TrEMBL record:
<keyword id="KW-0378">Hydrolase</keyword>
<dbReference type="GO" id="GO:0045493">
    <property type="term" value="P:xylan catabolic process"/>
</dbReference>
<feature type="active site" description="Proton donor">
    <location>
        <position position="284"/>
    </location>
</feature>
<dbReference type="InterPro" id="IPR011395">
    <property type="entry name" value="Glyco_hydro_67_aGlcAse"/>
</dbReference>
<keyword id="KW-0326">Glycosidase</keyword>
<protein>
    <recommendedName>
        <fullName>Xylan alpha-1,2-glucuronidase</fullName>
        <ecNumber>3.2.1.131</ecNumber>
    </recommendedName>
</protein>
<dbReference type="InterPro" id="IPR011099">
    <property type="entry name" value="Glyco_hydro_67_C"/>
</dbReference>
<feature type="active site" description="Proton acceptor">
    <location>
        <position position="358"/>
    </location>
</feature>
<comment type="similarity">
    <text>Belongs to the glycosyl hydrolase 67 family.</text>
</comment>
<keyword id="KW-0732">Signal</keyword>
<dbReference type="GO" id="GO:0046559">
    <property type="term" value="F:alpha-glucuronidase activity"/>
</dbReference>
<keyword id="KW-0858">Xylan degradation</keyword>
<dbReference type="Pfam" id="PF07477">
    <property type="entry name" value="Glyco_hydro_67C"/>
</dbReference>
<feature type="domain" description="Alpha glucuronidase N-terminal">
    <location>
        <begin position="7"/>
        <end position="123"/>
    </location>
</feature>
<dbReference type="InterPro" id="IPR037054">
    <property type="entry name" value="A-glucoronidase_C_sf"/>
</dbReference>
<keyword id="KW-0624">Polysaccharide degradation</keyword>
<dbReference type="InterPro" id="IPR029018">
    <property type="entry name" value="Hex-like_dom2"/>
</dbReference>
Length: 672
C-alpha cells in the first residue's frame, strides 16, 4: 500500500499512449564521470524503470536514436556541441534535443555534475507530469546560492516544533550505520535543488562540536555529498566555555577566536566541504555577543573569520527581541540590526524571518528587507507549521511565501520586491525550518510534503508562483488524472487563507495558546513576558481591537520605506488583511464590504470553517481515484481540521464577545 514514503518521486507507470512516445526518446542512457554522475544516471534508470518499465542502461557504448546523454561541458560527447552553458553557473543545466553522430538524442548537460543531476530530475519531471520530450530546449539555474533546510533537531532526536515523529538523524547508530533513509532524503532534496542542511536546532547544544559527534556528522556529509548537499551545524556561542574550558566566549578575546579557529579547522579536516554555521545569538535565552557588550557584527565576524579560509558561510539570525526591552517586539530586530548594515564580513548572511513577529499564518514582510543594502540578507521561512495547525491541518504554504517574496519593499524604489532583495546580495540564500521527521510519510501528513517541495522551488527561484508549483506537486504525488489534480490544487490554493480566517483574520496574529501554539488562546494575559501574551497582540477592549503600530502607537510602520509606511499606516489604504496588525479599530468601524468590523470578524471566522468543509467535500469524491491508505489519512485529518477550525472560531468569538459585548450577527452559524 502507498504510504507516502516515496514523496513526489513515485515514478508510477505512465499510461500506454505516453509510454510509447516516451520510450522512443529514452532508448538508452549514456553517462561517464564521478559519483554525482553515477547518482544522476542511477536516478534516471530508476525513474525510467518505474514509469516506462525497462532498464535504459546498456552495455554497448554506441549511441543510437533516442539516447539520453548526460555530461558536463568537458565531456567528449558534449563539448563539440558548443552548448551555451557558461552563463548557467556551477549548478545550472541545459536539456536539449540534439544530434550526435547523426542520431537524435537528448542531452542533459551542466558545467558541473551537480547541474546534470538537477537536469535529470527536471527531465524525469517532464515524464511525471506528461510533458512532451520532443524538441526540448530547457535551461535553468538557481537564483539563490544557499538553499538550506534548518532542522530544529536536538541530539536526543526530539524535534523542536516537529510534528512528524523523531529526528531522522539516528545519532546512536551513526557513524556505523547509514540508514538508507538518508539517501532518500538527499534524493528528495536534490530533486528540488536544496543544496544544504543544517542538521541541528538553532537552540543549539554545543555537544555536536565534540569529536565523537563530528564523526557522525561526517558520515551524513558523505551520504549527502554526491547529491550536492552540504552539511552545516548550529554553533552555540558559549561553546568555548562549555567545551573549551575558557572563562569567556567574548568574541574579541583572542583565545576565544583561536578556539573557534581550531574547532573550524578540525571540522574541515573531517568534512572538507562543510557548509558553515547557523547561529541564534542573544535571542530567547541563547548566549551571544551582547553578553560581553559586543554587537551582532562583532560576534558574527569572529566566527566568519574562522570559516573564511575554508570558504564557509556564517548564517546569523536576526530573530531577536529582549525581555528587558519594552518596545514593540515588531521593531526590535530592525532596531538592533539595521545600524550594523555594512559591518558584516562578506561570508556572513543575516537570516531574517519572513515577518517581524514569528511565522504567523499571515504577517507583513519584515522591515529589514531592503533596509540593509550593504549586507547579504537571506530569508527564513517555516516549513513546519508551528502556528498553522501542525501536521493535521491542511495548509499549503506556497501562497504565503509568494506573498512575502512579492511584497514591494520600495527600497531603493518601486518594484524592489523581497525576492529581488534576496537575489541582489553578494551572498544569497533562503532557509526553511524543516518539517521532516521519522514518520513513514516524512512530514507528518501527505499534504505537508507539498510544503517541503514548494520550499525547494522557491529557494531555487524566489520569483516562482505557488499555483504551478502546486500543480507539479499534485501531479507527481497523486497522479495525472485532472479529476484528481484539479480539486487537489484548488484545495491547496485556498487552504492557507482558510487557516488565516479561522485563526487570525484581518491581521490578527499570535493568538495561539502558550507553549504548544496549537489551539486558540486570545484570553491569555498572565505570562511572565508581556510580548508572549496573546492580549499583547490583539489589544481588544470595549472600544475596539488591533495593535496601533502607526505614529500614534509604536510607529513600527516607520521602519518601512515611506511609501510602504504611508500605506500600512493609513486605515483607509492598508490592505484589509493587515488592518488589525497596524491599527486599533473601533468595533463599529465599517470595513470595505460595508459590515461593521465586529460583523466582518465573525464573517471571516465562519468563512474559514466553511472553507474546511469545502475541502472535505472536494476530497470525498476522490475516494477510489487515489489509493485508499493515503485517501483515508487525508479524510481523517480534514475531519480533525474541521473540528478544530470550529474550536478556533467558537472560542475566539466567545472571548472577543466578552470584551466587545456585541450580539452575534444574524446568519452566523451556531457553534457545532
Ligand atoms: C519560535 C519557536 C521557537 C524557536 C524560535 C526561533 O519562537 O516557537 O521554538 O526556537 O521561533 O526561531 O528561534
Amino acid at each position: 500500500a502507498e504510504t507516502g514514503y516515496d514523496l513526489w518521486l513515485r515514478y508510477q507507470p505512465v499510461e500506454a499512449q505516453w509510454r510509447d512516445r516516451y520510450a522512443a526518446l529514452v532508448t538508452q542512457v549514456t553517462a561517464a564521470g564521478g559519483t554525482t554522475m553515477l547518482v544522476a544516471a542511477g536516478e534516471l534508470r530508476r525513474g525510467v524503470a518505474g514509469m516506462l518499465g525497462y532498464d535504459p542502461v546498456r552495455r554497448e557504448t554506441v549511441i543510437g536514436d533516442g539516447a539520453v546523454v548526460l555530461g558536463t561541458a568537458q565531456s567528449p560527447l558534449i563539448a563539440p556541441l558548443g552548448l551555451p552553458l557558461a552563463k548557467l553557473g556551477r549548478e545550472g543545466y541545459l536539456i536539449r534535443s540534439a544530434a550526435i553522430g547523426g542520431k537524435r538524442v537528448t542531452v542533459i548537460a551542466g558545467n558541473a555534475e551537480i547541474g546534470v543531476l538537477y537536469g535529470v530530475f527536471r527531465f524525469l519531471k517532464l515524464i511525471q507530469t506528461r510533458q512532451s520530450l520532443d524538441d526540448l530546449d530547457i535551461s535553468d539555474a538557481p537564483r539563490l546560492a544557499v538553499r538550506v533546510l534548518n532542522h530544529w533537531d536536538n541530539l536526543d532526536r526530539y524535534v523542536e516544533r516537529g510534528y512528524a515523529g523523531q529526528s531522522i538523524w539516528d545519532w546512536q547508530k551513526l557513524p556505523g550505520h547509514k540508514d538508507s533513509r538518508y539517501t532518500d532524503y538527499a534524493r528528495a532534496n536534490a530533486s528540488i535543488g536544496i543544496n544544504g542542511t543544517v542538521l541541528t536546532n538553532v537552540n543549539a547544544n554545543a555537544d555536536v562540536l565534540r569529536p565523537e559527534w563530528l564523526a557522525r556528522v561526517k558520515a551524513l556529509a558523505e551520504v549527502f555529498r554526491p547529491y550536492g548537499i552540504k552539511v552545516y551545524l548550529t554553533a552555540r556561542f558559549s561553546a568555548p566555555i562549555e567545551l573549551g574550558g575558557l572563562k569567556t566566549a567574548d568574541p574579541l578575546d583572542p583565545q576565544v577566536a583561536r578556539w573557534w579557529k581550531d574547532k573550524v579547522d578540525e571540522i574541515y579536516r573531517a568534512i572538507p566541504d562543510f557548509g558553515g554555521f547557523l547561529v541564534k545569538a542573544n535571542s530567547e535565552g541563547q548566549p551571544g555577543p551582547s553578553d560581553y557588550k559586543r554587537t551582532h557584527a562583532e560576534g558574527a565576524n569572529m566566527l566568519a573569520d574562522a570559516l573564511a579560509p575554508h570558504k564557509g558561510v556564517l548564517m546569523w539570525r536576526a530573530f531577536v527581541y529582549a525581555a528587558e526591552n519594552p518596545d514593540d517586539r515588531h521593531k526590535q530586530a530592525y532596531t538592533e540590526f539595521q545600524p550594523l548594515d555594512g559591518k558584516f564580513r562578506d561570508n556572513v548572511l543575516v537570516q531574517v524571518k519572513n515577518g517581524a513577529i514569528d511565522f504567523q499564518p499571515r504577517e507583513p514582510f519584515h522591515p529589514l528587507f531592503g533596509a540593509m543594502p550593504k549586507t547579504p540578507l537571506m530569508m527564513e521561512v517555516q516549513i513546519t507549521k508551528e502556528y498553522l495547525g501542525f501536521a493535521t491541518h491542511l495548509a499549503y504554504l506556497g501562497p504565503l511565501w509568494e506573498e512575502a517574496l512579492q511584497a514591494d519593499t520600495f527600497r531603493p524604489g518601486k518594484g524592489s520586491t523581497v525576492a529581488k532583495v534576496l537575489e541582489s546580495g553578494a551572498a544569497t540564500g533562503m532557509a526553511g525550518v524543516a518539517n521532516i521527521g521519522s514518520d513513514v510519510n516524512w512530514s507528518g501528513s501527505q499534504f505537508d510534503q507539498a510544503n517541503w517541495y514548494a520550499f525547494g522551488r522557491f529557494a531555487w527561484d524566489p520569483q516562482a508562483k505557488a499555483e504551478p508549483i502546486a500543480r507539479d506537486w499534485a501531479a507527481m504525488t497523486w497522479g495525472n488524472d485532472p479529476a484528481v489534480t484539479g480539486p487537489i490544487v484548488r484545495m491547496m490554493m485556498e487552504s492557507r487563507e482558510a487557516v488565516v480566517d479561522y485563526m487570525t483574520p484581518l491581521g490578527l496574529g499570535h493568538l495561539m495558546a502558550t507553549g504548544h501554539h496549537y489551539g486558540p488562546g486570545p484570553w491569555i494575559a498572565d505570562l511572565a513576558r508581556p510580548e508572549w501574551n496573546p492580549v499583547y497582540y490583539h489589544k481588544a477592549d470595549a472600544r475596539g481591537i488591533g495593535f496601533d503600530r502607526t505614529a500614534t502607537g509604536t510607529n513600527a510602520v516607520g521602519q518601512y520605506a515611506p511609501e510602504v509606511a504611508a500605506r500600512f499606516g493609513d486605515r483607509k489604504r492598508v490592505p484589509e488583511q493587515f488592518l488589525l496588525w497596524f491599527h486599533h479599530v473601533p468595533w463599529d468601524y465599517r470595513t470595505r464590504s460595508g459590515w461593521t468590523l465586529w460583523d466582518e470578524l465573525i464573517v471571516r471566522y465562519d468563512r474559514g470553517v466553511a472553507a474546511v468543509e469545502a475541502m472535505q467535500a472536494a476530497w470525498k469524491p476522490l475516494a477510489g481515484k487515489v489509493d485508499a491508505r493515503r485517501w483515508e489519512e487525508v479524510r481523517d485529518f480534514l475531519a480533525i481540521q474541521r473540528d478544530e477550525a470550529g474550536w478556533w472560531r467558537d472560542a475566539s468569538i466567545a472571548y472577543f464577545q466578552s470584551v466587545s459585548k456585541r450580539p452575534l450577527p444574524a446568519g452566523h452559524a451556531a457553534p457545532a
